[in-house]
């Protein structure tokens, strides 16, 4: 297991046109690979589309087998011999009424090595007047997921999951070195909590956190916060993508996981409490 590699976050402002979004995302990954030689890429939640209108969303989504975005990313991973974590794709399941918000890890051979369905549904009335009820549209996942990378173990999560430390602590206790939090965060909650939550998840687990984000304005006036982050196990922000579409890379020194956990061994010092 090598101790260092280059990771890149892709920051997007997707439309309601999946094929166009896949093309833009692929171009950014290709550019980032060429200029930074990154080996591991993370895209945001809803990489294929953001469509607030549920009826129109159902008209646009496909099954996993017929998803043009997934097909494009599998081909790209094989072409460039890279790892791609597709933060999530909105997909339908044959025979099921609800959709899934599903993450994919694709290896350099272009094969899907793991899938993760978002567990925590964002059912919230935001003070800025927007209402979200993901549980009305999506089937929640039930199984936490860990994946093996050449550099360590990857713990899966999507957006709202980051507000539930038990999930990320459980992944770290089971060996995760890196945690995922690709997102389409609202501007209101992003300004208040985004950086703090991601730093907290990194510090309390001693893991690197990769959080690629959506940014800007989408269909029907939906706005997202941006600020894709890569956070070190000590809580240092190594990358902040700001508010514009682009890619952001940094060298990851895996030895920093052990260093952080040796400094503050909170994972091993935990006590089971009965309330």
Number of domains: 1
- What is the CATH homology-level superfamily? Carbon-nitrogen hydrolase
CATH architecture title: 4-Layer Sandwich
Could you tell me how far the N terminus lies from the C terminus, measured between alpha carbons in angstroms? 41 Å
Might you state the CATH topology name? Nitrilase/N-carbamoyl-D-aminoacid amidohydrolase
Helix count? 6
Described by strand count, sense and barrel closure, the largest sheet is: 6 strands, mixed
SSE class = alpha/beta
Instruction: Report strand %.
Output: 25-35%
Strand order of the largest sheet: 5-4-3-2-1-16
Mean pLDDT level: 96
Low-confidence stretches: none
| H and E order | EHEHHEEEEEEEHEHEEEEEEH
Radius of gyration: 18 Å
Number of strands: 16
So what's the overall shape? globular
Proportion in helices: 25-40%
What does this structure look like?
This protein has six helices and 16 strands. The protein has helices at residues 18-36, 54-60, 68-80, 165-173, 187-205, 255-263, and strands at residues 4-11, 40-42, 83-92, 99-106, 112-117, 123-125, 131-133, 146-149, 152-155, 178-180, 208-211, 215-217, 223-225, 229-231, 237-240, 246-253. The strands form four sheets. The chain has a six-stranded mixed beta sheet with strand order 5-4-3-2-1-16. Strands 8-9-10-11-14-15 form a six-stranded mixed beta sheet, covered by helices on one side. Strands 6-7 form a two-stranded antiparallel ribbon. α1 (18-36) packs parallel to α3 (68-80). The chain is globular.
């Amino acid at each position: 297991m090598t101790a260092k590699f280059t990771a890149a976050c892709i920051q997007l402002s997707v439309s309601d046109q999946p094929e166009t979004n896949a093309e833009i995302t692929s171009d950014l990954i290709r550019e980032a690979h060429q200029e930074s030689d990154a080996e591991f890429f993370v895209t945001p939640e809803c990489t294929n589309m953001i469509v607030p209108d549920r009826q129109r969303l159902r008209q646009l989504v496909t099954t996993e087998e017929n998803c043009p975005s997934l097909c494009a990313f599998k081909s790209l991973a094989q072409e460039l011999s890279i790892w791609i974590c597709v933060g999530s794709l909105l997909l339908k399941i044959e025979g099921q009424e609800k959709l899934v918000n599903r993450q994919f890890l694709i290896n350099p051979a272009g094969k899907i090595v793991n899938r993760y369905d978002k567990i925590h549904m964002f059912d919230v009335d935001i003070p800025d007047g927007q209402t979200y009820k993901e549980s009305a549209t999506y089937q929640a996942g039930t199984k936490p997921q860990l994946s093996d990378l050449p550099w360590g173990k990857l713990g899966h999560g999507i957006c709202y999951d980051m507000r539930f430390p038990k999930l990320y602590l459980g992944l770290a206790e089971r060996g995760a070195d890196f945690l995922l939090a690709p997102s389409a965060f609202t501007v209101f909650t992003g300004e208040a909590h985004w950086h703090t939550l991601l730093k907290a998840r990194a510090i309390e687990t001693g893991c690197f956190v990769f959080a690629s984000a959506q940014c800007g304005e989408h269909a029907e006036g939906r706005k997202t916060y941006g600020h894709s982050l890569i956070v070190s196990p000590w809580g240092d922000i190594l990358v902040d993508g700001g508010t514009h579409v682009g890619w952001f890379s940094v060298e990851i020194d895996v030895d920093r996981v052990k260093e952080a956990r040796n400094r503050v061994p909170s994972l091993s010092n935990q006590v089971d409490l009965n309330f």
